[in-house]
Design brief:
The complex is a heterodimer. By secondary structure, chain A is α/β, with parallel strands linked by helices. Helices cover 38% and strands 17% of the residues of chain A. Chain B has one domain: Sufe protein. Chain: A (Alpha-Beta Complex). The chains are: A alpha/beta, B alpha+beta. The complex binds pyridoxal-5'-phosphate.
Chain lengths: 424, 161
């Protein structure tokens, strides 16, 4: 059977050569003017845009299959249940999770981490126990642990970053010990783009403690191939909306034994086996952690996003973002007063550039770029500990995805010259 | 700069106040101090006033942030010295009206240099920046026993309770 004779399967639909200019046509939102200029969207670390295939999946679910899951005997409920559970298996496989029971759907990374904090943390942590976090964490991997530490008497310890924004890994063994119950860290920094060597870190943690390792993968899963099994961690969290999926859906993956040992996070329908006045028993995994009607359409949309990303190819995405990063750093260096933050070595970064520009404030830079049709983020990026380390109240951040092109970078460079024109 | 709204936003006077702020100093004999921050962007203003009776004698500030927030507070402090508390409150009201699109306020001389900020009203996400110093002022007036004028968003009438 020749390839040409087969009906188009997913594999044969794959873009033969990776071409962002072609891929971006799949994203209806990118085809518009903002402030009378063609939109350049460089705020992908905040959220990514959605391809038409994801929008279609959402719409056709609501048009044809919408029903509650795991409840009705009727045909629509059967369809919705199958689609929801297929989505779980599909999204799990995308990150190397072979057992769908280990894939819990949540609202996103924030809820995934909160699930770990309030279910595992509140149950297990005792006075004197230690939680090790890093200075580069997003607030969603800081605040839940502060809240649970306050209630349990556990203490937080911190792995610091150096001036390039790399973790001070030499200090890691000394921070670990018998009291360390959890190490929770980000895979990729949303401010500096630093890609942390998670597998090596897990190895060190295992050597020096019995601590669990939880990884915040919000900025990793969208941008590089991730395999939770080969990373060796115990739990891994990510968000659908940062990887072409809808908002309001995300995943907590965790080892079955760990999830089995944990009490439920929220109570309600869907998560019970038997309810009696005296108490209740829990449903099997993964439903034990999914109280109430879940975000069915969101899961289906995320599954379509994962299909799309796989067609593009995660390795190709990572490669393109590196090329774009290198191109951007070269050209930005020519803007007088440009000061890029983050690791010098491009290989240690993902497609995120936080920067300062002379004494122009990030807020002003962002307004000027917006008036040129360019969307970037200005602020502390929900990572005030990083900002404090850098000694900056805020930065401007441009963050790429596979649909960004060198033209987008050129537009940004030109607009930064406008900023220089105003602020000198 | 070919972009007209941008041009009206970044007036020379604003950039001058941003680069060389007025009254940016410590006021040891202050009677009131208020810190205001914008958690979204990290802008921060600490306003110090020396108030005697119902009059502002001296106004100083410290702060960091964008050109709009820093220029606005700098301009504001130049108008406060020797002002009655009620007049200071009146400036805040008039400025807020200008931010919300009241064009007539742009010609109001009591606003002094602040009139250069009129272009901010075309940039809704930046209005908060321009008002940060005034938020501090109103809080300082309140802490100093002044009953502030009641104002509703978008309501241009003012009523004293
Ligand atoms: C590193 C990191 N962790 C966690 C989050 C929180 O993700 P969400 O808001 O989707 O829960 C983000 C996104 O802002 C992030 O960049």
């Amino acid at each position: 059977m020749s390839l040409g004779a087969t009906a188009p399967s997913r594999a044969t639909l794959a873009t033969p050569v990776f071409d962002p200019a072609v891929l971006r046509r799949d994203f209806p939102i990118l085809d518009q003017e903002v402030n009378s200029r063609d939109l350049v969207y460089l705020d992908n670390a905040a959220t990514t845009q959605k391809p038409a295939s994801v929008l279609t999946a959402l719409e056709s679910y609501y048009r044809r299959d919408n029903a509650n899951v795991h409840r009705g005997i009727h045909e629509l409920s059967r369809r919705a249940t199958v689609a929801y559970e297929d989505a779980r298996a599909r999204v799990g496989r995308f990150v190397g999770a072979t057992d769908p029971a280990e894939v819990i759907f949540t609202r996103g990374t924030t809820e995934s981490i909160n699930l770990m904090a309030w279910s595992w943390g509140l149950d297990v942590l005792r006075e004197g126990d230690e939680i090790l976090l890093t200075e580069m964490e997003h607030h969603s991997n800081v605040v839940p642990w502060q809240l649970v530490a306050q209630r349990t008497g556990a203490t937080l310890r911190w792995l610091e970053i150096d001036d390039q924004g790399l973790l001070e890994l030499d200090a890691l063994p000394k921070l670990l010990g018998q009291r360390t119950r959890l190490v929770s860290l980000t895979h990729v920094s949303n401010v500096l783009g630093t890609v942390n060597p998670v597998a090596d870190i897990v190895h060190t943690v295992r050597e020096h403690s019995d601590a669990l390792v939880l990884i915040d993968g919000a900025q990793a899963v969208p941008h590089l191939p991730v395999d939770v099994r080969s990373l060796g961690c115990d739990a891994y969290a990510f968000s659908g909306h940062k990887m072409c999926g809808p908002t309001g859906i995300g995943v907590l993956w965790a080892r079955r034994a760990l999830l089995d040992s944990m009490p439920p996070f929220q109570g309600g329908g869907e998560m019970i086996r038997v309810v009696e006045r005296e108490g209740s028993t829990w449903a099997d995994l993964p439903h034990k952690f999914e109280a109430g009607t879940p975000n069915i359409a969101g899961a289906i949309g995320l599954s379509a996003a994962v299909d799309y990303l796989e067609r593009v190819g995660m390795a190709a995405i990572a490669r393109h973002e590196h090329e774009l990063l290198t191109y951007a750093l070269d050209h930005l260096a020519e803007v007088p007063g440009f000061r890029g933050l983050g690791p010098d070595q491009v290989e240690l970064r993902s497609g995120v550039i936080s920067f300062a520009l002379g004494d122009a404030h990030p807020h002003d830079i962002s307004t000027i770029l917006d008036s040129e049709g360019i969307a970037v983020r200005a602020g502390h990026h929900c990572a005030q500990l990083v900002m404090r380390h850098l000694g900056l109240p805020a930065t401007t951040r441009a963050s790429f995805y596979f649909y960004n092109t060198t033209d987008d970078v050129d537009r940004m460079v030109t607009a930064l010259h406008v900023v220089k024109g105003i602020f000198g | 700069m070919e972009n007209p709204p941008l041009k009206s936003l970044y007036q020379q006077l604003i950039l001058e106040h941003y680069r060389k702020p007025k009254n940016k100093a410590d006021l040891p004999d202050r009677t009131v101090e208020v810190r205001m921050t914008n958690p979204v962007c990290g802008d921060e203003i600490v306003l110090q006033l020396k108030i005697e009776g119902d009059e502002i004698r001296t106004a100083r500030f410290a702060g960091q942030g964008c050109s709009i927030s820093q220029a606005s507070v700098s301009m504001m402090t130049t108008l406060l010295e020797g002002r009655k508390l009620a007049d200071a409150d009146g400036i805040a009201t008039r400025f807020t009206q200008m931010m919300h699109g009241d064009e007539s306020a742009g010609g109001d001389r009591t606003l002094g240099d602040l009139r250069a900020l009129q272009g901010v009203s075309k940039f809704p996400v930046r209005i908060k920046c321009a008002l940060l110093g005034f938020d501090a002022l109103l809080e300082a007036l309140k802490q100093s026993g002044h009953t502030p004028v009641v104002r509703d968003e978008g309501d241009e009438e003012e009523t004293t309770p």
